[in-house]
Amino acid sequence: MRSLAWVRLLVAVIVMGGSVITLTSCGSGGGGGGTSTARLTLQSITAESGPELPWDQFFLNERVLIKFAGDVDPRTVNKDTIQIRLASSNFTIAAQGDFVVVGNVVSFVPLLPSESDLSDAGLSINMDYRVFMPGFPKTNTVRSTRGDQLPSDVSVTFKTRNGPPFLLDPVAGAPRVIAVALDLNGNGIIEADGDASTPEDEEFIDFDQIPIAIDSPVGLARAPFKTAIFVNEPLLPSTVFEDFDMDGKLDHLALIDVASNTDIPMTVDLEQVFLPSVNGFRVAIILTPITTLPPGTTIQAQIFEGITDTANPPFELDRFVTGFTTRTGPLTLQDALVEDFDDRDQFDPATSAEWDAGNSDVLVAGKGLGGSGIDGPLIIGDGEEVVLNTLENGGFFNFTTVSIAPDGILTAEGPNPLRIFATDSIDIQGTILIAGGDGNAGTRRGGGVATKGGVGGPGGGDGGTGNDPPNISFTDDPMQRGGAGGDGFPGGGGEGGLIGRLQAGGGGGGA
Known about the structure:
Blueprint: E1 8-9, E2 42-47, E3 55-58, E4 64-68, E5 83-86, E6 97-102, E7 105-110, E8 128-133, E9 154-160, E10 177-182, E11 217-218, E12 227-231, H1 237-240, E13 253-257, E14 262-263, E15 266-275, E16 280-289, E17 298-303, E18 320-326, E19 378-380, E20 385-389, E21 396-399, E22 402-404, E23 409-413, E24 419-422, E25 426-428, E26 431-434, E27 442-443, E28 450-451
């Protein structure tokens, strides 16, 4: 999560990369060039469970296996050259899934379901499908690695099962936990390898590099973070989300606050994804607290008996417990504001940037106010802290680019608001900490014990100074009060307390 406390980002672009897994079988619709006199011979089309198509007891998650006489060019395999479509839609609705090419065999792997009712599966219950492959003289055909194509069109049908079991078990034996990974910096992305800088599409390549259990500080105290428990094979979704007694808590999963031994309210997601690049599955149960967890909270993620795989009869996932602690650090509920750009609560009307553009949780650069760039780039790496004093240049900083790594911290101090300009991009993945300083202490008449000034506010304003009058008075004369804090802008502190027998301190900084 990008953290911000009343920072005026006048020109900013936060670069947030999406992740795309390129299928090993993707290619253009035409596939290959030229015309070959040789022909690619089709040997069989079968269901993963064994029968040759047509077949009327097809599981929702089993593969369609297409075997040819020669090796297939993966670039020519796509949803145009091999069409698997729903018959009831006049073959306009395609089955959802991925193609994998291994030598002379092409596999279609249906999308795995993650919902209890299986409604998000790549195939639907009790439906007729057709496998159609164009052949010569059409040009959008599957071709061999030599450029040979099918001599004619191929068409065959199958029907999915109309009663349980609906899912085939693709991995023999009982399911088991193989890894635990966390959202280390509160940005909503699971850091499978423990490194927040790793691109998302590279996180899950080698499970051997992921620790089986975690016992280390993680997450920002302000941000609900995700805990992902990885399993070696697909699970039956209904067993993950089972709430037999209808008490609003899942029967087989829990997040526990160890100190109080109480449940932490959470949301649960099941992610079941086939990865064509490794011809394998990524299955994760993801637990996300729906309340903010204070720093230093020790937590246990627990799996109880009852979650099963898709075998018939099913195998059960063993009980599993892993523990971790939220990080203690500069961000707490009391000493900082957090900005993730998902609303306009802290939007500065003077900015030229487009805040929360298209509900994208990013800033989009405005026009004409990018600053001079005279201060060069600001780059803060993991574990680094940079302090900007707003006494300089009235708090205006003109960078070319700004980059704050997930564990980097930018701290502002000084009497003025911090204003950041950039001629190019601002990428904030770490923390910007802006809290007002405490007010100056006042004194008793003639010296003696000082009366404390107000505490600085999280929005950037200093606390009011303690009172320090020339003589004792019980009047409400403003001259007998401490000075005001930085209340000329949002977050400023109030004035100091009235003098008298109370020896009052300065006002606290504004929120």
